[in-house]
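Ticket #4471: structure output looks truncated?

Reporter: J.K.
Steps to reproduce: submitted the chain below (340 residues) through the standard prediction queue, then opened the result file.
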Amino acid sequence: MENTDRFVRYRAFGRDIDGPAGLSLSPAPIETTPGEDPALRLQPEASLRVSIDENLPPLLHDVEDYPGGPKFYVWQEGESIGVQYDRWRTRLMPGEARIDFAELPPDGPTLVEDAGDEYRRFRFSLAMERVFLPLYALFSMPDVVALHGSAVVLDGKAYLFIGRSGAGKSTTAYEFVRRGATLLADDLVVADVARGIALGGAPTLRLWKGEGALPEAQEDRSLWQHDKSKRWFRISAEHGAASAVPIAAIIMLDPDTLEGQRDVRPGLEQSSQREALTDLLGQTFDLSHGSSEWMVARFRNAARLIREYPFYHFRYVKSADGKATHMDALYKAIVDLASE
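Returned output as attached by the reporter:
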């Protein structure tokens, strides 16, 4: 990835981005909006190409992305933020509207065996859309919170879905897109609470689905080079929102909370602010070794989001065969909410 001299202008997370060709982001519109921030530039930087664990300073974040997955490191470098994930190390520089990046040398431990340039480009694009760009947005704006979840757009408003692992956040976004909604974000939703907006990410979904499950997808491939892997689907830009969208509501998906009450129809239940804040904080991105300033800002932004936007639980029982049998009820509930 370091040797490319061809740059393309994309649009994601509320701003234009100049980066290497081949990223899975939406193309930037031809017309620009007056007063917008300058384009964020993704720039190769050879000095970052060091061995996997070399020269890591005291860390703000040091966890596995998921059990058995790649390590995810974050640290402070003066006014910049260092991030290392999978095969890449980056330097996030909000003051200069720039992200420097480099691929780590192959002699360190790698996630998978080298499978050629095409697979490397895919892994780079995935790391950029899933980790580096959302974190840049998170660290570059003081009033932002990042939620583990998905988001869709209906009638020009954003509906944010959160929930514990396996609750069906990505599946919900997938089912909404199939019903005509626009995908805003999947996996990590970045919300600017000061402006009341959610930022559009890449037009991609990660699902426990088989090949061809999303016929309209422009790309369909396994995330990892083994059988037990989610699939990654890239949908057309017209089905994804790359800019910012006003927030309508936050919905926490609560599967199996109606166990023993199968005669009760699944539906939305508005939560108290205290319950909502507890649930929301459990689903926000947090640094494993964050400073007190980080923790205060995270709590403040989450509390403001709860104060200003309704928070609902959607309680349902999962189908025994794993099918999304609750989706008709959820979609109707959100459509009714949007029409109010």
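Triage note (M.O.): checked the attachment and the full token line is present. The chain is about 20% helix and 35% strand.
Status: closed, working as intended.
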